[in-house]
Amino acid sequence: MGLPGSGLAKGLAVTLRTMTRRSHTAHYPDVQPHLPARSRGVIGLFEENCTVCMLCARECPDWCIYIDSHKETVPAVTPGGRERSRNVLDRFAIDFSLCMYCGICIEVCPFDALFWSPEFEYAETDIRELTHERDKLREWMWTVPEPPPLDPAAEEPKEIAAARKAADKAAAAAQQAAAESAAEPGEEGERP
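Above: the chain's sequence. Below: its structure in token form.
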């Protein structure tokens, strides 16, 4: 058994040691914090990729995503074809006063329309202003960092390989057509 008051002496020694060290306080408004590369701040919307499938709104546990849309009829591309209908986004809003930043909406989006932005300074004086409409969400999209580079030793994805093959084939056909068209005027110029 130790001496009476030894616990108090140990506690005071820790306090004294801590008091004599230099503090590591970052003065936040003047000095911006260093955030990890893919930190969660606010959600950005890439509106061109949104097909109004409503998966994000259905999967959100807080029900803080509001989506309104309407159907538009697209005329047939070919004669005799049928008209198509497509969803058009009217309203996309996220209420950040309800959002718990779980990221489920971003994970379930099959068309990569939602992204994490590292911006975290969007405090408002009125709670109603924390509902960001699609224009504000589009502004956050410009602060989304580039995805990390792919592993150089990894196999190329099938989609990219197929697209590259099609692009190479189209470029080769264009070069061949250009070479043929360059050769034809010389032949036509010689008349018997």
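The first strand starts at residue 42 and ends at 45.
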